[in-house]
Design brief:
14 helices; Phosphorylase Kinase, domain 1; 15 strands; Rossmann fold; globular; single chain; 3 domains; Transferase(Phosphotransferase), domain 1; alpha/beta
Length: 453
Amino acid sequence: MLAKDSENKTKIGKEGGPEAYRILVIDDDPMILQLIAEILKPKGYQVDLCEGSGDALERLIDFKYNLMLIDSKLPGITGPELLKYCKEHHPMVEVIIITGNPELEEAVATVKTGAFDYLSKPFTVQKLLETVEKALAHQREIFMGQLGDGFRGLNVDTVVRGFPDLKIISTLGVGSTGVVLLVEKEHKKYALKLLRPRADWENNAESINRFLREEKILARIEHPNVIKIYESGIAPEGKLPYILMEYVDGKLLNYYVKEKRLKLEQKIFIISQIASALVAVHKFGILHRDIKPGNVLIGEGYIAKLFDFGIASIKDSSTSATHEVIGSPAYMAPEVFNRQAMVDNRSDLFSLGVMAYELITGIKPFQGQSVDSMIEAIQSARPVEPCKIVPELPPFVQDVLEGMLRKNPEDRFASASEVLHSLNSLGKGSKTGEQSLWSQIRNVLRRTGKVWS
């Protein structure tokens, strides 16, 4: 699904030189950050710097990292706490804890939690580079070992044993559950998603079933803004579950959020497309549950494609949705964190509202220095009024955002169709008819309570 998305691509394999690796450094000392950057960047590594755990959490939502260097004494959520979060939610990321006050007990505890190493300040250039190189080599070794012999030729122009009719071109993305490859078949490019084998493979039916559910969901949906599935199953050679998907040459939406180059009309066009995709998704009783910029691919002509249905839920006769809290916290609706609350398609609309707010203003509406504080903000805080951030923003655009971001699901748009209708109406209004158009949109919304600060 990913193509020329250098901002988000993560490579692991023999072909990966330093330029293939992205490293996140978190330290509240700007001098240490600058020092580490000056050591690592000349070696070709992509290096991102954060002075706090809040910024780091946002980065982890937006980008995929191979390695994190974390100061143990961060304000707010501490280095060891951030390490624990990473190992739970991003298990493939290697972590090196750095500290100015080395303690044996802390060092042992962090390694037990999953840190690759514990590095004391001051450190030499050679020591830092050696530790980084060893951590990345360890990640590469673990990854290739998990994939098995059938994947050891990823970097060459060969065919894996389980897919004799496919030519592997490159690795598009690597996650905690699998890998996505760019492949070619009969001169046409596809994205091949493979589930990573595990030690308890024979007893791993639940993971395999969840992986293949993505195909079953998408196969039922024919929509220009949803990634198309061509085939799926379990390859006889190696028993590898796979999904062969549409390949789109483009960039993830979070690239455009960071670049801030899109015009308002282009942003609304993208948001409208995702709303349209949700109309189709919800029609089948499916909740995506992870609407965020990292799950939206933008191709030629700013055509948007929604993908990654790996944690979606399907309504059935016995329940309206699962209450399992999984997804990306910054984009989740308030009711998702309440196990007693009913979760339905309106939670996806809230996530769409968060994503739309971020795309239009350049910042997330709800922020926090930890996951808990971020959740608290989502449940109780009022975001800054978008017109205060973007003064030229038409009031009726802000009104549509408001209709998606209400805390109470009953006060939001009732359906993705209503969101789409309102967004499409924006493009048809004129200055003389603007007040009338705004009134029509307001009639759709439930005007109770306040959204903005």
